[in-house]
Amino acid sequence: MRALALLAPLAVLTLTACSQGDSPDQPAPAPAEPDAVLGGVNLDEPLRALGTEPFWAVNIDGDGLVYSGVDRPEERAPHAGPQMAGATAMWSGQTDQGRVLSVTLIETRCSDGMSDRTYPLTARVEIGEEVLNGCAASVDFLMNTDERGEPRG
Q1: Facing residues of 91 across strands?
Q2: How much is the pLDDT for 115?
Q3: Phi, psi for 26 (deg, rounded to 5)
Q4: pLDDT exceeds cutoff 50 at 9
Q5: How many CA atoms within 13 Å lie on the side-chain side of 95?
Q6: What are phi and psi of 141, to 5 degrees?
Q7: Would you call the peptide bond into 24 cis, given omega within 30 degrees of 0 as the criterion?
Q8: What is the pLDDT of residues 27-42, one digit of tens each?
């Protein structure tokens, strides 16, 4: 019993020495890096892939994939996040119309062929038997740059 009485204060001192409180002299921890980045684009942010002739778009976010096109019904598909492989990222899911929707983004600059905008990523979309090629960027990039890719001001 006497040994326990001697060990208790030693245990308190050891725990106190091991714990480190926040000190103003210690630098703040660096912000966490995004888990998935491709071509400088944070894949955790909402993304949009788009193409012309025919006009189509796929929005990618935490809620899933949303495909839309001219004269086409919108289709939604859940996804489990991107699968990264080198300079590509791929999302895949089955749409509410029963078709497989796969979106592959490639770390290659892209032009949509109709504007002067350059996108940071190239996109390939497969929906059912159809294969569509286009460009992709974060929604933030698309909303905050003009057709030349310059910041809106």
Answers
A1: 103
A2: 80
A3: -85, 135
A4: no
A5: 19
A6: -60, -45
A7: no
A8: 655 444 456 899 999 9
